[in-house]
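[step 3/7] fold_predict: job queued, chain A
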Amino acid sequence: MLVALVSLTQTIAANGCDIPAGETPILFNQTGFETGATKLAILRNGSGTPARWDIRDADGMVRLSGETLVHGMDESSGDSVHQIRFDALTDAGNGYRISVCGEESRPFTITDQPYGRLAEDALRYFYLSRLGTDLLPEFAGGAMWARAAGFTESHATCFFGPDQDGTNWPGCDYTLETTGGWADAGDYGQYVVNGGISVWTLQHAYERLATRGQLDTSGWTGERVALPQGSEPVSEILLEARWHLDWMLQMQIPDGEMVWVDRRETGAAEAHLQEIDGSGLVHHKLHERAWLPLPLLPADAEEERFLIPPSTAASLNLAAAAAQASRLWADLDPDYSVRTLYAARRAYQAARRHPDLLARNNFDGGGAYGDTDVLDEFAWAAAELFLTTGDAGYADDFAATLSNDAYVPSAIFWANTNLLADLSLALVTEQTDLRSEAAERLIAEADRYLEDAAREGYHYPMRASAMNWGSNANLLNRGLVLASAHDLTGDERYRNGAVHALDYVLGRNALDQSYVAGHGVRSMETPHHRFWARGADPEFPPAPAGALSGGANHLNMADPVAQEMRGNCAPQRCWVDHVDAFALNEVAINWNAPLFALAVQLESTTLQASE
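[step 4/7] structure written:
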């Protein structure tokens, strides 16, 4: 018998199969594959020899066969992996299965539109995050997620008293209307710097469709996601972005008001408070003195909220998002277009007067959102203002920022916004130097992402070293750059790279996990959230379909659940679907925004399969 077992082991190895026990061996996007796009599955396999695979249809007929591509050990997951590439299978159908090494996959679908209602659900997330208004069942996707309004206070004043660093803030002599906007994440705090990139990303998805003449054909003209509308329907994308932009506009300081700011030099031990004319500056954020408990209905949150001091970064976020909005609303609502442009100009000029109001991580009760490098925000705001106004002075400012030796382009997230300027410039239909240079930068960045994908066994366009807080959104933002490079060049490698980014988020990862609630057979259910808190209290609802988890995070394992995993998980495996895992499983507006934008961008383009 021992001889027989040894012989069997040798036969399996010779056939290219060494399948580990205890985990799903065949991994892929759990929502399906697009007929004309790249198709990739991962096989956990310790053999160094290729294995033979077949794909059968629902009737059991073999439709495609081939051999795995051996990648070997994948450091991001700790798995030895092979890749199964089946781009050549382009026939639409349900019930396909992969057979390899004596294992059979779960069934999958091939279709022209494999993502179903992902885009609609990802956008509805923002309605479900609205504050200051009742959420109604007909717009919320069901009674489970409807709720009474909370945070309906009419005015907030500046933070006063000691912050967590012990700095004794004097407050200010004014109050601002602060009702509305979205809750930022699992907490109910609101942050202009996170709102800016989120509003911009939704508006960018709309502007791309409009530039390509696809608004009507795509149905994003008020028809796909039900939202409260006026008598003349407006695109639900713009309507939802406006809800939060209106809140951001309220965070701008009126002319002539004095406000206390932090003049601390970088690295200095103590803050240096100074009272200045705050005209046009924008408060960095709005939240309570201490973190609110979990779970908690918005209507039950009674603690006072405060305006956190203004910052250069927040002012530039408003300048960029409002300038972008101005050109998008010019024909739909001319008065609103004028209002947003006026606010954008004021915010930009205020930031120019005060380029050193650097936000620091010194206020408890809300997310830190410190940012001590604002050259990227200056470039972004200048580009958006130039695109809206045509004023050459803004183009000069943009060029001057890019030539600054300290300006270092980097991948998109809320504190790195330089590529947002390039994504907007790339939509310009006229061939200008600014557009050409932006296109060159985007294509070069996209090439780096493709190189990253080629190194990773699970073939997603990001290195494992970048798996920090919100890694899924970081990956999807890379997908937006890749999709833009495809728009610019027609090279299908870039669009396929964007597909690989979404494939990872929807299940082609070491945990066999769809990180999007309601999408995939193993989807996220219990995020860190005050209201979608069934993981903490069964009386509260679960995550709504379309909510995106932050994802694997091995670099900033700050919550108690993650700390227990520290040092015991490969980067891809540093995640758990747990309500207390705020560093791993929170949700946020700036994470759902690229999920929506990339889903829209991929569904609006088609291509032929290619290697």
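[step 5/7] annotate
Confidence is low (pLDDT under 50) at residues 1-13.
The radius of gyration is 25 Å.
exit 0
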